[in-house]
């Protein structure tokens, strides 16, 4: 936050300067009223009334000018502050590892970037308006009232103590409640995100009502906590009004007692000051409400800003990935969790090789390849790229050299050409076409009326699973990576198309190293080396023929797939 203070403190102070002038003008007015009553009206001095009246008018005009100037500055500063903060948070989130994003939860990050920033923006705006004006007005009115009549000040002291107790209780009760409200907003966002992401599944399973119920439940929780918080907070304002009104009654009563010797104009001014104290105290209690929310938001935003990013300085850049070496690697997603996903992994891949990784579902295949672009940190062991410890290589250069076609591929809204070019903005139309040819995508793209300009709906809704996979492969190829990772990326393709793609690949990129993760043995059968994974451990490695002799698990997978295909034929 220091950064923003440094950037905006001059404008902030200027706004405070104008708001102080505004408050001073408010403070002068009851004094003038008192003089008009006691000196002008009481003595029937019309000149005095006109003179003081004009003074009051000029002061009011100046007050309006100060208020307008302050308003322009405060709106400008708070908007710019929120703009900067949102940008900084987004940039920071971009540096996060997957693990950190998972730790925060995506929905919570969205709430922090939107709702929490708005709370802080409201607070900053308020600071430059009422937050400073109210205390000045409150203390100033107090001083002016004491100056008018010292004896009656005892009423003010009692009033201030009472109000202070109410405000501090308000703060104590409100803070945990607003924290809960923010958490419930996170949950609601999370539910919406999940629903929208799985809308097809929900509709296929006819689980619409179940999802609506789930949403209603979360929505109700938010409703309940917000209402409770608002209700609790709203109890305090009438209390403050009550205390101040009782004090005004007391002033009127004391004004009637001869020993206090108070003129009517002074009583009017005194009550005027007390009303100002009342308004400013109500504003102060409102400030505390905003402060309580802003404090929660500040902590949540700060957590995001303080979290260590992934990008480290002074790391080595590499031009390409030639060799990969896993040495005794252990890995788990959650450090507190005993569940080690990868155990003692030793694996070696040389330049230009095609490596297969096969194993049952959940055996850790994706987890292995997630370590290569440094998506997650390794718990134990060393991962070397070109003989250099991966921790000493810059993320950017590493990720530039590798292209991954993930199991769950994502297409963006836009044309097919845009989607392929997403892998390399500067790619020419010819390159886009060439990559589509290699990925065996050109035929189906040409069958569309608009060919490469065909519009893809959000998430690739209007293309089939196999077409989506081939567009994703084209997108990866256009990067011209030195390492290509296909994570179950051809599962929706027939064996012939898959074989053609593999043939085309080696012609397109010289010395391309390729890792193929697959469930089907036919996808990895020709690989230079195949690793067999079982419950996070490598239980066999070698070429297909070697594994058929040496690895029971591989043989079992082979047999089950052969039996299945024979069964299919029958
Ligand atoms: N982001 C994550 N957070 C926590 N655990 C995870 C995460 N991703 C995977 N896991 C766990 O790690 C283990 C290995 O998962 P992984 O995705 O690597 O398996 P896989 O062999 O690729 O499976 P599949 O063939 O089904 O894709 C599983 O037990 C899974 O539950």
Automatic annotation (TrEMBL):
TM spans (from-to): 54-73, 130-148, 154-173, 235-255, 267-292
Location(s) in or outside the cell: Cell membrane
Gene Ontology molecular-function annotations: ABC-type oligopeptide transporter activity; ATP binding; ATP hydrolysis activity
PROSITE patterns xrefs: ABC_TM1F, ABC_TRANSPORTER_1, ABC_TRANSPORTER_2
Membrane topology: Multi-pass membrane protein
Stretches assigned to the ABC transmembrane type-1 domain: 13-293
A GO BP annotation: oligopeptide export from mitochondrion
UniProt-listed InterPro entries: AAA+_ATPase, ABC1_TM_dom, ABC1_TM_sf, ABC_transporter-like_ATP-bd, ABC_transporter-like_CS, P-loop_NTPase, Type_1_exporter
Ranges of residues in domain ABC transporter: 324-560
Keywords carried by this UniProt record: ATP-binding, Cell membrane, Membrane, Nucleotide-binding, Transmembrane, Transmembrane helix, Transport
Entry keyword annotation includes Cell membrane: yes
Keyword Hydrolase in annotation: no
Domain of life: Bacteria
Pfam families: ABC_membrane, ABC_tran
GO cellular component, one term: plasma membrane
Name under which the protein is recorded: ABC transporter ATP-binding protein
């Amino acid at each position: 936050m220091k950064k923003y203070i440094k950037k905006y403190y001059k404008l902030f102070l200027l706004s405070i300067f104008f708001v102080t002038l505004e408050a001073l003008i408010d403070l002068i007015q009851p004094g003038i009223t008192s003089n008009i009553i006691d000196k002008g009206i009481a003595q029937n001095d019309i000149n005095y009334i006109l003179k003081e009246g004009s003074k009051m008018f000029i002061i009011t005009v100046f007050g309006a000018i100060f208020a307008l100037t302050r308003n322009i500055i405060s709106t400008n500063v708070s908007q710019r502050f929120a703009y900067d903060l949102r940008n900084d948070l987004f940039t920071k989130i971009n540096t996060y590892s997957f693990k950190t994003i998972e730790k925060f939860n995506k929905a919570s990050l969205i709430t922090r970037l939107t709702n929490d920033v708005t709370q802080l923006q409201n607070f900053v705006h308020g600071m430059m308006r009422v937050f400073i004006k109210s205390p000045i007005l409150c203390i100033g009115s107090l001083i002016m009232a004491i100056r008018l009549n010292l004896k009656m000040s005892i009423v003010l002291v009692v009033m201030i103590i009472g109000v202070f107790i109410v405000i501090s209780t308000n703060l104590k009760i409100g803070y945990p409640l607003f924290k809960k409200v923010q958490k419930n907003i996170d949950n609601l966002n999370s539910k919406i995100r999940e629903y929208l992401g799985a809308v097809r599944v929900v509709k296929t399973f006819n689980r619409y009502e179940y999802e609506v119920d789930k949403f209603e439940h979360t929505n109700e929780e938010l409703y309940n906590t917000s209402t409770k918080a608002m209700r609790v907070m709203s109890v305090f304002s009438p209390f403050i009004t009550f205390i101040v009104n009782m004090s005004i009654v007391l002033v009127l009563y004391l004004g009637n007692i001869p020993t206090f010797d108070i003129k009517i104009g002074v009583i009017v001014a005194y009550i005027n000051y007390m009303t100002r104290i009342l308004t400013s105290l109500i504003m102060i209690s409102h400030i505390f409400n905003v402060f309580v929310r802003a404090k929660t938001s500040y902590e949540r935003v700060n957590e995001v800003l303080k979290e260590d990013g992934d990008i480290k300085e002074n790391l080595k850049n590499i031009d390409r990935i030639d060799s990969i070496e896993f040495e005794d690697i252990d890995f788990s997603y959650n450090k507190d969790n005993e569940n080690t996903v990868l155990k003692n992994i030793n694996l070696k891949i040389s330049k230009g090789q095609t490596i297969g990784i096969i194993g049952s579902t959940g055996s850790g295949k994706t987890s292995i390849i997630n370590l290569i672009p440094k998506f997650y940190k390794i718990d134990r062991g060393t991962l070397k790229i070109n003989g250099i410890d991966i921790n000493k290589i810059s993320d950017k250069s590493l990720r530039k050299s590798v292209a991954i076609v993930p199991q769950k591929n994502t297409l963006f809204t836009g044309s097919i050409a845009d989607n392929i070019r997403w892998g390399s903005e500067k790619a020419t139309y010819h390159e886009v076409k060439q990559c589509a040819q290699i990925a065996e995508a050109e035929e189906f793209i040409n069958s569309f009326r608009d060919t490469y300009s065909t519009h893809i709906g959000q998430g690739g809704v209007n293309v089939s699973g196999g077409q989506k996979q081939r567009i994703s492969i084209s997108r990866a190829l256009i990067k011209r990576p030195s390492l290509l990772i296909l994570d179950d990326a051809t599962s929706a393709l027939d064996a012939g198309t898959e074989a053609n793609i593999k043939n085309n690949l080696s012609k397109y990129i010289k010395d391309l190293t390729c890792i193929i993760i697959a469930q089907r043995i036919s996808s990895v059968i020709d690989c230079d080396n195949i690793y067999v994974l079982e419950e996070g451990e490598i239980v066999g490695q070698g070429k297909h023929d070697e594994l058929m002799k040496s690895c029971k698990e591989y043989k079992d997978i082979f047999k089950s797939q052969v039996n299945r295909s024979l069964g299919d034929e029958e």
